Amino acid sequence: MGVAVTQAVVISAGQLMARVRDGAETVVLEVGRDSDAEYLEGHVPGAHAVVLGRDLFGRRTDASGNGPLPDPAELQERLRGWGVDHDSTVVVYSRENPAVATRAWWTLRWAGVTGAHYLEGGLQAWEEIGGALDTVVPTPGEGSVVVRAGSLPVLSPEEAARIAVSGHLLDARGTAAYLGDPQLPRVGHIPGAHSVPGSGNFADGRLLEAESLRDLYSAYLDGREIGAYCGSGVSATTTVLALAQLGIEVALFPGSWSQWITDPSRPSTTGDRPGVYPS
Q1: Which of 41, 155, 159, 188 could be disulfide-bonded to 180 (CB atoms 3.0-4.6 Å)?
Q2: What is the DSSP string of 208-275?
Q3: CATH number for the domain harbouring residue 97
Q4: The Rhodanese domain covers which part of the protein (predicted)?
Q5: Residue 261 exposure: Cα atoms within 13 Å on the Cβ side
Q6: Is 230 annotated as catalytic?
């Protein structure tokens, strides 16, 4: 596999604080899953509020799954409103769930914002080093970024099925979702997919060190193509981020399981073994 991104993908709270202290131009985004209510109570100074479902998902259809890709033109308008230029350093963070921020990081990188970084440890890490919080909502920016959709690889359902056979398709959901229940329809996992829960990429809210990440994914680092999916294309972005830290490119299946099961002809299997994708 090739290198996912040449720029660093993670930034520490200390590095962010140094940029703020030195006046280095930085766009900061606080990402919430469904609301910006907590953001209004206090956030990293200068941070813009981003709501994942409202701002970074596209319009759902009967076949799209729960987290479709955004319309590039609409995304470009939002990015410009947050003050993003083509060469901006953008730092995204969340309060509790790292996957919310990693999906935002992934979306920006997919859109060609190569300076997008994930804040290690999120808001908690910022507060732990004495970072102040602010309740001031910044005015809309006047960014000039041009979205280049497709700057990171994505998978359609058919491509995910192909990788389940010829490469490594990793399921980032929790173990229970992967196992499924043989008595229930449309549960379980894509045949051939391996269970590697996205939560395992973190310890105490922090991304594992590179050596530990390499150990976690060692069975899949044989040079074959790697794809990742989850329930709605959110948790799987932690897999993309983790392997990007190792310089390894992973293709995301954005529709993930929620899109897979929209077509009853697509196979599924249950249990703790990957199974074999039917020929």
Answers
A1: 188
A2: PPHHHHHHHTGGG-SSS-EEEE-SSSSTHHHHHHHHHHTT---EE-TTHHHHHTTSTTS--B-SSS--
A3: 3.40.250.10
A4: 22-135, 168-269
A5: 15
A6: yes
Whether 275 and 161 have beta carbons less than 8 Å apart is answered as no
> What does pTM read for this prediction?
0.96
Q: Is the same domain home to 110 and 24?
A: yes
pLDDT tens readout for residues 188-245: 999 999 999 999 999 988 999 999 999 999 999 999 999 999 999 999 999 999 999 9
Same domain flag for 188 and 227? yes
Task: Judge if 114 and 179 occupy the same domain.
Answer: no
Active-site hit among 84, 101, 160, 230? 230
Does residue 180 lie within any of the structural domains? yes
Provide the residue range defining the domain that includes 231: 157-260
Number of domains in the chain: 2
Q: Are 117 and 105 in contact (CB under 8 A)?
A: yes
Same domain (yes/no): 106, 173: no
pLDDT digit string, tens, across residues 20-69 = 999 999 999 999 999 999 999 999 999 999 999 999 999 999 999 999 99
